[in-house]
Amino acid sequence: MRRQNYRRTLAAAAMVTASLALGACGGAAGGGDDNTLTVWHNATTGDGAAYWQQMADDFMASHEGVTIEVQAIQNEDLDGKLQTAQNAGEGPDVFLARGGGKLADMVEAGFVLDISDKLDENVSSSVPEGAFAAYTIDDGVYAMPTSFQPGGIFYSQDLFDAAGITEAPTTMDELGTAVEALKGTGVAPIALGGKDAWPAAHWYYFFALRECSHETLTTGLSTYDFSDQCWLDAGQDLADLAASKPFNDGFLTTSAQQGAGSSAGLLANHQAAMELMGTWNVGVVGSLTPDEEPLPDLRWFTFPEVEGGKGDPSALMGGVDGYACSSTAPESLCVEFLNFIMSEENQEAYADAFDTIPVNMNAQDVVTDEALLPQIEANNRAAYTQVWLDTSLGSNIGNALNVAVVDLLAGQGDAQGIIDAMTSAAAKE
């Protein structure tokens, strides 16, 4: 899925393998060749793919005899391929980690290395402690965070201006007014890639964030108790929004990030005015413009407040992208590679390549994009950040939630159906 997630996904997967010969740099524990690391990520083309190849080349240049094999896998395929490979004992040494329940399942299965006591001093001093929260399980840290990924609504300033919208909506009523104004200009008010399920489910996640208090939200996610009225209200909020027909035609068969006809592509080509998505969308949208350059008028605002909701209006939904070491990887080498990519210089390169917010505080000055700067501000003032609900809940319950949301939008389910789907999936855990 997303994003949860670097969610910069584009075309077909590619694999780049590089190596340098000579000498030796020892790995420690783990299976396979102690001088070889396999790295799985999801930046299949462009600057993201180039970044990972550059990291491999730079690391090998300073580590004689070490080989880094880099493989890019389409984002929507990554979780399934990773699970299959790990179950077969053939998982990569370094891989994109989603956090939450998904990572917890891997930790319980013994697939992931605890790196709690293996962080370099420069990492410990430059990365906020909270950045490790998504990867902390039973006091152990199981992945290296690389970027903050707050979610919110991206929009085209030019299309807002054309519709006479002078201020970004702060409430759902204001969002509804903006939707109607945009309809009058002939563009889709909101782009939605319902084919991939998780983008549609984002809307339910955020309504739950606004309807539920922090305590109710965290309790429900940890105990699988969704009986509080706020969970049902979130579903009804989504049903009410859908009834206003704000989404692009054919949104149920529209993909999220693949090609000009995707929801990101509609925003990139000014055929839709808004899209609810995570930070990675800056890079995805930029890759889908006619000149494959950043969209000059792309802007961002936090998800609007819901009247009567008990959630803090400053709270964010999102995550922290990061990379984990397999428990069978050459331990010393793998951890050294994770620390290597976290230097200030390499975090600046990561921010540039992925159009995102690096977790290394010393590298954040490199961010100048007008759609990213308000995200840094929102991140700094947020009461708290909730990890994407499907990530928090784990694959089984999370997938059931996502499918139930699509059913509601397709007219084949309702708000209660979302609660029932999560509860039924939780009973099987």
Give the overall shape, derived from the CA principal axes.
Answer: globular
Structure summary, number of beta strands: 15
Q: How is the main sheet built?
A: 7 strands, mixed
Structural class: alpha/beta
CA gyration radius, whole angstroms? 21 Å
Major β-sheet strand ordering: 1-3-2-4-13-7-14
Helix fraction, binned, reads 40-55%
Q: Classify the beta-strand content into a percent band.
A: 5-15%
- The end-to-end span amounts to 21 Å
Uncertain segments of ≥5 residues (pLDDT<50)? 1-31
Total helical segments: 17
Q: What is the arithmetic mean of pLDDT?
A: 90
Give structural notes.
It contains 17 helices and 15 strands. It has 429 residues and is α/β, with parallel strands linked by helices. It has a seven-stranded mixed sheet, sandwiched between helices. Helix 7 packs across helix 16 (395-409). The two termini are 21 Å apart.
